[in-house]
Amino acid sequence: MYETQDAELYTRSHTIRLYQPEDFEGMRKAGRLVAEALDMIGEHVKPGVTTGELDDLVRQFTLDNGGLPACLGYKGYTKTTCISINHVVCHGIPGDKALKDGDIVNIDHTVIVDGWHGDSSRMYAVGEINTRAKKLIDVTYEALDIGLKQVKPGNTFGDIGFAIQKYVEAQRMSVVRDFCGHGIGRVFHDNPNVLHFGRRGEGAVLKPGMFFTVEPMVNLGKPAVKVLSDGWTAVTRDKSLSSQCEHSVGVTEDGLEIFTASPKGLFRPVFS
Ligand code: MF3
Ligand code: CO
Ligand code: CO
Predict the structure, then answer these.
(1) Of 110, 117, 179, 190, best ligand 1 pocket probe by most atoms within 8 Å of the beta carbon
(2) What's the mean pLDDT in 57-62?
(3) How would you list the strands of the sheet with 242-244, edge to edge?
(4) In this structure, which CATH number among 3.90.550.10, 3.90.230.10, 2.60.120.260, 3.40.50.980 belongs to the domain 18-258?
(5) CB 111 within 8 A of CB 59
(6) Where, by residue number, does a divalent metal cation 2 bind (predicted)?
(7) According to the model, what pLDDT value does residue 151 have?
């Protein structure tokens, strides 16, 4: 996530890089590796494992498969992944904390392959989670799908944000405003800011060759967040549960390509 700022500047079309058809292949490789890492980690997400252990597994897997962890060293960040549990909205720092039955967990990972960035995050359930938590996760994934349906040439970034916000609020949940998606490619966090709220028709017009993330954060309670004294961990102010999922995508002539789709079809958790 990028901190939402200077929305004016970042919504002007001419500030958004346009990539060439051959650049999609670079993004495919980076996107596939991050998706494989998030596939791999799923079976390790269970009660008792620490977030630091999960981070180590993701780092090792990434390096073993020819990727570099993009977050490691980024703006002073010292871990490979962000792992955000329950009321942590994003940027949870892996460490000694052990997962427990009933937790909901987001793992956000970014890799660099041949200079291209692949950025994705998913939700994982630890053991058995309650009905409200399942509903929150379902709404978050629906929100991402609904946002991605707006990704095609001629639509605007405002169309994406509007669709997400409208759906989430109709479920009586809220969209976080303080963090947003971002342009991606050879740069990790590039123009534009991709807001998960907004108005139809506003913002820059989508064009083939734009690469960006969509990564809505949805809260069961109010949208307000605060960042803890570690300078990273963002939590809901009202301590309500929060959930997020993220894809990196490219705009094509007639729609989009999702670079971070799961090879094993594990992107969206299914609850029995
Ligand atoms: N992967 C996050 C995103 O979706 C960014 C994390 S930056 C870090 O943009 F430094 F916190 F790792
Ligand atoms: Co991102
Ligand atoms: Co991310």
Answers:
(1) 110
(2) 99
(3) 174-175, 217-219, 242-244
(4) 3.90.230.10
(5) no
(6) 119, 182, 215, 246
(7) 98
Residue with the nearest Cα to atom 12 of ligand 1? 71
- State the distance from the centre of ligand 2 to the C-alpha of 213, rounded, in angstroms: 6
Ligand 2 (ion): residues with CB under 5 Å are 119, 213
pLDDT, tens digit (0-9, with 9 covering 90-100), for 215-252: 999 999 999 999 999 999 999 999 999 999 999 999 99
Mean of the per-residue pLDDT values of the chain:
96
- Name the residues around ion ligand 3, CB cutoff 5 A: 108, 119, 121, 246
Structure-derived torsion over alpha carbons of residues 236, 271, 256, 11, reported in degrees to the nearest 10:
-10
pLDDT of residue 93: 99
Domain boundaries of the chain, sorted by first residue: 18-258
Determine the distance separating the centroid of ligand 1 and the alpha carbon of 84, expressed in angstroms: 12
**CA angle, residues 216, 171, 123, in degrees to nearest 5:** 40
